[in-house]
Amino acid sequence: MKSRFKDMMNDVVVYGSCCACGSCVLVCPFNQIQYVDNRPKVVKGDIPDFCKISEEVGCDICAQACPGLYPREHHLKEAVFGADRLHEEGFGGYRRILVAKSKDPRILDRCQDGGIVTTLLVGARRLGLIDGAVVSALDGNERCKPVPKVVTSEEEIIDAAGSWYTYVPNDLALADAQKKNLKKIAFVGVPCQVTPLRKLEFVDSGFLKTSEKKKAVLARQLKFLKGFPEIIALNVGLFCSETFTYDGLMVNKIEREMGIPLEDVRKFNIKGNILIDKKDGTRCELKLKEAQQYQRPECLHCADFAAEIADISCGGVGATGWTIVVIRTARGEELFSQIERAGQVDVRSIDEFERSKKIMLQLSRKKKERVPIPPGKDEFFIREPLAK
User: What is the domain range of residue 283?
Assistant: First the structure.
């Protein structure tokens, strides 16, 4: 039984677990829902869980993309990887795990930790494996509020390096990628943004096909159901414990209480505390516990810390100046190997970063344990994985 628009609006949005990825809005073939105040909202009518197309024509593509509905990321592992996983630990399946750092000084100057995500994108662009990437970037906004963005040049990719720790609906930028007629995209996002694309990749489109439906309607629906995952050449997942509200953390805490104009902030990092690097070269620190009062409550419903169904997952847990790299799929391994052979990265064994691996396991376990089970939805979490 496929999830429906009503399920998405009631069991996710009203329930409070909507992560605000915007994927449902992205894939709606007939513009029945909009992204309003970081939530999907019906365009017409006063009934929030009623979609005319869903009820009268048959659609519900939005619900197939929703990361808060079955299948969740842990149900998708068999479909995504099959026998591709060589190892399995608490942070998911993988083929190789290592620690790396970019050798490009331009990237190191702007990056979060080791600059590996940026290096992957630059390398894939040089190799012709991608013609663009979906990322979050300031886009000229100097007040620490990034937006979803499509980048196509090496310069744009490097300019987008770094994290800002407030939520950005990266999935929405895939519409711009299509408008630019890009055919091979690297998608960079946190786990709840990678999951919708994997769901669309493996969902069976048969539920859309009915004898009564007009061919033009079906063709449009199939385009929106499968068109976006078809242009994804690489999924790069970012480790994520939680993100923060922009108004709460950036405006209220950092700018107003700490007295740091957001225009003066060069970049952020989290290493026990939140590290705020200013453009004048000075650094301020904010205790993570103080920042966590501005955590988005929706993040408590996510069980995936390490982006377990991405091609490659990256993060800087416990490793200053280096990136922990979890290579999960064959295509992820091939890309990293080409970049490694080209001498673009320094690589170290994970054994040299034992503390980082321990933290990664702890944070992965913590996220899985904290997710509340929606009322009456026990089977929602314990169904068998989808077959490949």
Answer: 78-187+237-370
